[in-house]
Structures are given as C-alpha cells and as structure tokens.
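Give me the fold.
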Amino acid sequence: MPGRLVPHLTAATLLRVSAEGAATALVLTVQARTGRAADAGFLQTALTLPYVLSGPVIGHVLDRTPRPRTVAMALAAGYAAATALLLLTAGRSPLVLALLVAAVVGCTEPIVVALTSMLPRFVPAGRLPRAYGLEASSYSVAAIAGPGLAAAVATFADGSSSGLPIVVAAAVGAVALAFLPLPGPRDAPERASRVVTGGLLVLISNPKLRSLTVATTFAWLGFGGVAVTAVLFAQHIGEDASAGGQFLVAFAAGSLLGSLASARWLKARHAGRVVLGGLTAFGVALASVTLAPSLSWALLCFLIVGLVEGPVFTATLMLRQRESPPDRLGQVNTTGGSLKIGASAVGAALTGAFADTIGPVGLLLAIAACQLIGATAGLLLLRARWTAPERSP
C-alpha cells in the first residue's frame, strides 16, 4: 500500500496546490495588469460554474473506465495547459476569450477531487481510515502552499508572475500520475441516466445529507468571494495587494490545525452538530475581521477563522461516509463538491458585481451572513425531520 499511496499523494497534492493557488494567482495577476482585482471574480465564476456538471461526470467516468490512469493523466494535462493559458491571457486579452479559457479549466479541474475516489482500489480496507486522513491533510497542505506560493512570487517578483508556480505544480502533478497503477472497476456499467443524478438523489433523499448539503451550499455561496475580498481588504487597511495572499495562507494554516484536532477528537455521532456549530462560529469569526486595524491583527483573525472552519470540513466527510450507500460514496462526494463549487462561482460573481458598491468591509459581512444563513437553514431542515414522526398517524 505505501508504494502506491506515495505517488498518489504526490500527484494529488501537487494538483491541489495548483487548484488552491489558482484563485489567488488569478486575482493578483488581474490586479497587476488592470488595477482592478474585483474583475477576477467574473473569471472565477467562469472557472467554477462548469464544475457543477463536469464533477459528477468525471467521477462517474473514473469509476467505470477500464483505464482510469490514462483518463486521469489526460484530464490533469488538460487542466495544466488550460490553467497556463488562463493566467497568460487574464488581464491582457478580451474578457470573452479569458472567460472561455476559464470554462475549459472548470471542465477539467474536478480530476483534482476525483482522485480521492481511487483510494479503495489500491488501499486495503483496514488501512483506508489512515489513507483518508493523509488525503485530508493533502487538501490542507495544498490550501496553505498554493496561495502562499502565489503570494510569495507576487511579493518578490510581481503579481503578473504569481501564476508560475501554480502552472508548474499542475504540470508536475500530471506527470506524477504516470507512476500510479490504477486497476479498472469491478462493478458493471451503470445506466447513463444516473451519471449526473445518482449522487444528487442520495443527497436529496437522506435527511442528514440534505441538511448538510443545504448548509454548506449557502456557506460556499459566501466563501466564493473570499479570495477577492482578502485582496481588497488588504488594500483597505493600507497594505499591498499581495497581503491578501497572506490572509489566505493564515486561514489555511488555521484550517489545517482545526482539521488535525478534529481528526483526533471528533466523533462521527457529533458530526452534524459540528457542521452547524462550526458554520455559526465561522460566520462570527469572519465578521470580526472587519475590526482588524492592522496586518498582524487581520492575520490573527484569518487564522481563527480557519481554526473554526477546519472541523466543518472533517465533519462533512464523516457525514457523507456514514450516510451514503457504499456504491454511491464517490458520486455523492463529487456531486456535493460540485454544488459547493457552483455556489462558490455565484458568490465570486456577486463579489465582482458589488465590490465597488459595498466595499471590502461590506463583502466580509455578507460572506459572514451566508455562513449564518447556511447554519440556520440546516438546523431548520433537521428539526423538520425530527418533528415529522410526531405528525405521522
């Protein structure tokens, strides 16, 4: 197992570093070339919206193709090439062309998440919990390294070069997939009508998953504007735009610490409460960022925001694994992720549209409100489930 897990984690982490850093690099690139960081919100929308459909489809294809490694390598290579082209054209070419390139990135990026569903093919069942723990750490490390690399290049070179390490990480990750032996599926092919809808049906029919999905979708509606808002808030407190990348690194560091703590102490039976309580704390902590008077205080606030967000992600994975049918877990994960990404795309577009009107402080409060709305909606759905048997004859 270790011999196969190492190349998997290497390739997956590099691709995730690219995906996590792409948003920051895109904002810094557009800011450097046009002077308007908010314009990157429209490109982020074009990048993430295709994810809503391509995510479940890519997950379905990888589950059933006899040559998953070939498909994964092709998708990863396409993602790397499209990302490079997007960062070259953003802020230089007509907006329509950049939007089209961003859509291509969105069609291929789900491979970054879909690789997780490959673990049961080469990891023994008894070692899967440890493998999933390392997989979760891969996301957290990438969330720190991606924005951090983009911000570092922007600080020591210039913002228009911030995408260089992002593209390199994607290219190397795609090559690393060649060293990962992936066997084909054991199950028979599924009806085409379930390619997109299979996971969605599970999310809708299961009360706990329905509550989770609604809550996290609202939360990610706000979260989609964090990258742009971080850069704008950095400028609001008198710092360089690259400080926005530092805010995102602080957030990711806090999220990593929160995830590690929850992995040790969080019990599956408490996962639902942790999601709703964590989103509430997330919203309150994010609102407190608006009170930060300086860079150091803002960094501390973003670290705290990450600390309360980390357990939410861990609890989400636990709930999906516990409540989903075993033969649907991969599709449930990609579908749930696609809904969050789709909401994030809408949030990014709204951020770009209202940035000049309400400013960075207003944006932070709006993002915080989305977390509180999500937690409230999730709680109401759970209460409706709990009271339903009392109304039954």
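DSSP finds 16 helices and no strands in the chain.
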